[in-house]
Amino acid sequence: MDGSSGVGVLDKAAMVLDALEAGPTSLAQLVAATGLSRPTVHRLAQALVHHRLLGKDIHGRFVLGSRLVELASAAGEDRLIAAAGPLLVQLRDQTGESSQVFRRQGDNRVCVASAERPVGLRDTIPIGTQLSMRAGSAAQVLLAWEDHQRLLDGLQGARFTPTILAGVRRRGWAQSLGEREPGVASVSAPVRGPNNRVIAAVSISGPIERLTRQPGKIHAEAVVATAAQLSGALRQTSSNQLLG
Fold first, then answer.
1. Which CATH architecture has domain 8-64?
2. Domain at 71-243: CATH code
3. In angstroms, what CA-CA distances link 12 with 15, 20, 46, 53?
4. Which of 108, 152, 188, 243 has the fewest CB atoms within 10 Å distance of its CB?
5. Strand 174-177 to 54-56 pairing
6. Cα 43 to the chain's mean position, in Å?
7. How many Cβ atoms from other residues are within 10 Å of residue 243's Cβ?
8. For residue 153, is pLDDT > 80?
9. What is the pTM of this model?
10. Cβ–Cβ < 8 Å for 207, 123
11. Cα-based distances in Å from 6 to 3, 16, 34, 183, 201
C-alpha cells in the first residue's frame, strides 16, 4: 500500500517522526532510517524541534517532542477526567485535603479535575484554573521528566532547582512549601499514559499549618497510590479501545 498522502513535505516529516518511535536517534540514524538526504532530514528535524514536535536529549540525539505529549494528553483528557473524579474524592477523604489533577498546557498548568475540602481552611483551585509552571509541586512533577532542553528552559525563573527536580525523579513525588502561594503546601505525583510518559500530576494542597513543613512525609504515599491508580485506569482504557 502506498503511504504517500500526496503532500511531500508532510510525508517526509511523518517519516522522521516514525523513525523516532523506537527511541533517541542521531541525525545519521535518521538519514539511514528514512532514506532521505542529510540536508533534507536536518532541515525537517530542526523545523520539528522549533514546533516542539521533536526535542533533543542530553546527548544531542533527536527524540519525540513534548508537544506530541500535550496533544495526546488533550485527546485523552476526557478519559483522564472521567477516571480522575472518583479517585480524587477518595484521596480527599483519605487525606482530608483538597485534591486536583493538573495537565500541562504550554507555559502553564491547568486544573482539569478537583475535589474540594468541604469545610475549614482549604486551597481552592477551580477546574479550568491556569497556574504557573514555575512554582508548586505539580509544576515540579510535570517538568521533572521532560527532555533535557525543555527541562533547562523550564528552570528559567523557577522557584525550584535542578537538585529539587532530581529528587522528584528519584522519589517519584514532589512537595512544595509556599512556592505558589505563601502559606500553602502541596504534594504531587506523576500520572503516566499508556506509553509511560508523564501526562498529568495528581496533587493535594492546603495550609502549611495543617500539612506541616514535611507534607510529603505525611501524604506522599496516598498521593503516589492515587496517581498509580489513575495511570492504571488510563492504560486499561487504552487496552480496551485497542481490543475493541
1. Orthogonal Bundle (1.10)
2. 3.30.450.40
3. 5, 13, 13, 14
4. 243
5. unpaired
6. 28
7. 6
8. yes
9. 0.70
10. yes
11. 9, 17, 17, 58, 40
C-alpha cell at 83: 477516571
Give the model's pLDDT for residue 238.
58
pLDDT average, residue stretch 83-96: 95
Where does CATH 3.30.450.40 sit in the chain? Answer: 71-243
- Ranges for all domains in the chain classified under CATH 1.10.10.10: 8-64
Q: Does residue 204 carry a pLDDT above 70?
A: yes
- What strands lie across the sheet with 98-105, from one edge to the other? 130-132, 108-115, 98-105, 198-207, 184-192, 174-177
The number of angstroms, rounded, from the C-alpha of 110 to the middle of its chain's C-alpha atoms is 11
pLDDT tens-digit series, residues 98-141:
999 999 988 899 999 999 988 776 678 999 899 999 999 999 99
SS3 of residue 118 by DSSP: coil
What is the pLDDT, as a whole number, of residue 136?
97
Taking 90 as the threshold, does the pLDDT of residue 4 lie above it?
no
Under the phi-then-psi rule, with left for phi > 0, alpha for psi from -120 to 50, and beta for the rest, what region is 128? Answer: left
The answer to whether the CB of 189 falls within 8 A of the CB of 87 is no
Distance CA(159)–CA(116), nearest Å, equals 26
